[in-house]
Amino acid sequence: MSMAQHLAEITDQQFADISELVKRLTGINLHAGKKELVKARLAKRTRQLKLGSLEEYIGFVRNDKSGRELVSMLDALSTNLTFFFREPAHFNFLKDRILPDIKGRNTKRLRIWSAGCSSGEEPYSIAILLNECIPDLDRWDAKILATDLSTRVLSIAMRGEYAKQRFRDTPGQLVQRYFDVVQTSPSKIYRTGPRIRKIVHFARLNLVEPWPMKGPFDVMFCRNVMIYFDKPTQNRLVKRYYDLLAPGGHLFLGHSESLTGTKHQFRYVMPATYVK
To answer: Which of 21, 61, 219, 269 is 20 to 30 A distant from 130 in Cα terms?
Structure first.
């Protein structure tokens, strides 16, 4: 059997081993429907490392005491597809309901967390909104924490360069105001400008490990993240979100997510939107 043929197969036991390793270390469930994706992504990684089989690769991951290959494996398995101002109902709610209340407070402190920030479109969208809604933002202590498990997407986010198709839901005047064109041919590439870049801080974070930040946060975006975890892990995460939010703080989930069937103390506001 050739190496290519050898890598084209993944046994049920190999898939179970990988799933168990990922679940134990990250809390993420790789259900049976992910088997083909796992096979394709890890076969590529196995070839890059010049290893002879997936079995050999699994052993390599288990024996790598530095943990670097585990990070590379999780990067290979993660799928990230997003664009600016995705799921606009949340951004409209932030603009119309949350920020006016925050501006009416005595303090000029504002903390927002984008958990599972992927390649950065979400936290930069939030930063644009803050600049649009708070004219004296420079005089505020305003920070957006943007975290993700994947070092690969975080490197893209920190570079802050995006193709035109990522702006499908973004008004043209906002693109002109907050981005610089850094490439025009063969297609346009835009780079985040300093007004939005300076208030976003990116960091790698595994959600099932201890969190270094203390909060409290006024708003948390945790969209399309909960779907990767089983119910006990979801329950633990939701409690930790609640504890880290300021009273009256809001939690946004993905449009296909809800806290139905999850133990929580949040009050429902509208689909995928909750308040402490």
So the answer is: 269
Point out the residues that are catalytic.
41, 148
Residue ranges making up the domain that contains 129: 88-275
Do 155 and 202 contact (CB within 8 A), yes or no?
no
State the CATH number of the domain containing residue 233. Answer: 3.40.50.150
Residue 66 sits in the same domain as residue 189: no
Q: Would you give per-residue pLDDT tens digits along the chain (276 residues)?
A: 344 445 557 888 888 888 887 777 666 777 777 788 788 888 888 888 888 888 888 888 888 877 778 777 877 776 556 789 998 999 999 999 999 999 999 999 999 999 999 899 999 999 999 999 999 999 999 999 999 988 888 999 999 999 888 998 899 999 999 999 998 888 889 999 999 999 999 999 999 899 999 989 999 999 988 877 888 989 999 999 999 999 999 999 988 788 988 889 999 999 999 999
Domain CATH number, residue 31: 1.10.155.10
Q: Token pair of 194, please?
A: 């300093």
Separation of first and last alpha carbons in the chain: 58
